[in-house]
C-alpha cells in the first residue's frame, strides 16, 4: 500500500573509490503491504522481497505477517488480503529476523523507499532488533531524475512498469509489486548505462538536466587506464582546470559527465574541459603524492586547495631534530613534510616513520627526507604497504 509523496572550503573532496560496479552490487528489492501510512502505529501485513545481482534473481521472500489490530476493510478491498490470511501467519519478530538475514549486505531498493524503509525501521525497533541502516535506492526518486519531463503519465509504479516494459504489473500485493520494481530498477539502470554511471552513488546522483553535449564529452575519458593514478582536466588551450586522483582513473573521470559530482564549480569545469590526461601510478600512495605535486605546480583554478598550496597539515621538526615534530597548518621552514589531509594522518605518518628499522631521527636525515634526497624511509613504508596488501590487510595498508 503506497502513498507517493555546500562543499567544505579548502578541502578537495574524497570519494569512496572502492565502491563496486553496479553489475557486482547485490540489491534486495522490497515491497510492503500495510494497514495504513504511519510507521510505528500502523502494521505490516505482507512482505515481498527479491534478491538480485548482475540482473539475475537469486532468491525471493514472500510472507504474510500477523497483526495485533484489525485489517481495515478498504485495505482488504485494495489488496485482496483477507483477515483470515493473517491468522496463523508468522509474527512480526519472526518476519523481521528472516528479512534482515535475507537482506544482509545488500542495497535495499523500494518504490517510494521512505515509506517502506520507515516501516521496516519501526518494525525492527518494535521487536528489539538492530536496524543495520543499509544503503538504499528509491526507484521513485530515480525515475524522477532519469526520465524526461512528460515522458510518462506519472511516476507511480504501475505507470512506470507499463512505460518501461516490465514483465510484471503491480497488483497491490507485495511480491508482485517487488517483481515490478525489479524490472523498473533494471530499466532505469539500462537508461544511464552509456552515461558514465557505474556505481550506486553515481546512479543516485545522476541528473538528466546535464546537457547532451556534456554527456557526449564522456568520450574524452575512453583512452584513460583502469587503475590507480592522477587525472587532469584541460581547457581548449591545454591549460589545467582540475587535478584529482583515484583507484580507477577512467571510472572516476567519467563520473563527472553523469552528474556524479554535484558541486556547482565542478559542473562549470566539466563544461569547459576539452581533454583529460592521466598519470598512471603503482598504488594510491604514489597517486596522492603526484596529485599534490601537480596541484602545487599547475595551480588548477578548480582545485580549492590550489589557492593555498601549503594548506593542509604538516609535520615540522624541532630545531635539533630530536623531539617529536609538531603538527601544524602553518609550517615555518623548508624542513616540513606534508601536506596531509588530516592532523591524525600526519601523526600516524610520524609514528610509522619512527617504527621503521632505521627511522630518520636526526635533523640531517629529516631534511634529506623532506628534500627528496633520501627516500629510503618512504621506500620502506611502501614495502610495508605492499606486504600488508598482499596479505589482504587493506584497511591497515
CATH-scheme architecture of the largest domain: 2-Layer Sandwich
**How do the strands line up in the largest sheet?**
3-2-1-4-5
CATH topology of the largest domain, by name, is Nucleotidyltransferase, domain 5
Rough outline: elongated
Structural class: alpha+beta
Strand content: 15-25%
Number of helices: 15
Full CATH superfamily name of the largest domain: Ribonuclease H-like superfamily/Ribonuclease H
- What is the end-to-end distance? 48 Å
Q: How many DSSP E strands? A: 11
State mean pLDDT (0 to 100 scale).
84
CATH first level of the largest domain: Alpha Beta
Order of helices and strands: EEEHHHEHEHHHHHEEHHEHEEEHHH
Rg computed from alpha carbons, rounded to a whole number of angstroms: 27 Å
What is the helix content? Answer: 25-40%
Major beta sheet, specifics?
Answer: 5 strands, mixed
Uncertain residue segments = 1-17
- Summed up, the domain count is 3
Describe the structure.
With 397 residues, this protein is of the alpha+beta class. The chain folds into 3 domains: 22-191, Nucleotidyltransferase, domain 5, CATH 3.30.420.10; 211-307, GIY-YIG endonuclease (3-Layer(aba) Sandwich), CATH 3.40.1440; 313-390, no CATH class. 37% of the residues lie in helices and 16% in strands. It contains 15 helices and 11 strands. It has helices at residues 73-79, 83-86, 92-102, 113-126, 139-146, 157-163, 174-191, 200-205, 212-216, 249-255, 264-272, 284-298, 343-354, 363-371, 376-390, and strands spanning 26-34, 44-53, 56-64, 107-110, 136-138, 229-234, 240-246, 275-280, 313-316, 326-328, 337-340. The strands form 3 sheets. The protein has a 5-stranded mixed beta sheet, sandwiched between helices. It is elongated.
Amino acid at each position: 500500500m503506497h502513498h507517493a509523496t555546500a562543499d567544505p572550503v579548502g578541502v578537495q573532496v574524497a570519494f569512496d573509490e572502492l565502491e563496486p560496479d553496479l553489475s557486482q552490487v547485490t540489491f534486495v528489492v522490497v515491497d510492503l503491504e500495510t494497514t495504513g501510512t504511519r510507521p510505528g502505529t500502523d502494521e505490516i501485513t505482507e512482505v515481498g522481497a527479491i534478491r538480485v545481482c548482475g540482473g539475475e534473481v537469486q532468491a525471493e521472500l514472500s510472507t504474510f505477517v500477523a497483526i495485533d489490530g484489525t485489517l481495515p476493510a478498504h485495505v482488504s478491498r485494495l489488496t485482496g488480503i483477507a483477515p483470515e490470511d493473517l491468522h496463523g501467519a508468522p509474527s512480526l519478530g519472526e518476519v523481521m529476523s528472516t528479512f534482515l538475514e535475507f537482506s544482509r549486505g545488500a542495497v535495499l531498493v523500494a518504490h517510494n523507499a521512505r515509506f517502506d524503509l520507515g516501516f521496516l525501521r519501526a518494525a525492527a525497533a518494535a521487536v528489539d532488533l538492530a536496524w543495520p541502516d543499509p544503503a538504499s535506492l528509491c526507484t521513485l526518486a530515480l525515475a524522477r531524475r532519469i526520465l524526461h519531463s512528460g515522458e510518462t503519465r506519472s511516476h507511480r509504479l504501475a505507470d512506470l512498469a507499463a512505460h518501461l516494459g516490465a514483465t510484471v504489473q503491480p497488483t497491490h500485493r507485495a511480491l508482485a509489486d517487488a517483481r515490478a520494481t525489479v524490472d523498473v530498477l533494471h530499466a532505469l539502470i539500462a537508461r544511464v548505462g552509456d552515461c558514465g554511471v557505474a556505481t550506486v552513488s553515481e546512479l543516485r546522483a545522476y541528473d538528466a538536466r546535464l546537457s547532451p553535449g556534456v554527456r557526449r564529452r564522456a568520450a574524452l575519458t575512453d583512452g584513460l587506464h583502469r587503475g590507480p593514478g592522477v587525472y587532469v582536466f584541460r581547457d581548449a588551450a591545454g591549460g589545467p582546470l582540475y587535478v584529482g586522483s583515484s583507484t580507477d582513473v577512467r571510472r572516476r573521470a567519467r563520473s563527472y559527465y553523469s552528474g556524479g559530482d554535484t558541486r556547482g564549480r565542478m559542473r562549470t569545469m566539466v563544461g569547459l574541459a576539452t581533454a583529460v590526461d592521466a598519470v598512471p601510478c603503482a598504488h594510491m600512495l604514489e597517486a596522492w603524492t603526484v596529485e599534490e605535486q601537480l596541484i602545487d605546480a599547475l595551480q588548477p583554478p578548480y582545485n580549492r586547495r590550489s589557492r593555498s598550496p601549503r594548506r593542509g597539515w604538516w609535520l615540522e621538526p624541532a630545531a635539533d631534530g630530536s623531539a617529536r615534530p609538531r603538527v601544524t597548518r602553518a609550517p615555518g621552514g623548508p624542513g616540513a613534510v606534508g601536506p596531509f589531509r588530516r592532523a591524525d594522518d600526519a601523526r600516524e605518518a610520524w609514528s610509522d616513520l619512527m617504527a621503521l628499522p632505521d627511522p630518520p631521527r636526526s635533523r640531517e636525515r629529516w631534511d634529506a627526507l623532506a628534500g627528496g634526497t633520501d627516500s629510503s624511509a618512504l621506500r620502506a613504508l611502501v614495502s610495508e604497504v605492499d606486504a600488508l596488501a598482499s596479505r589482504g590487510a587493506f584497511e591497515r595498508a
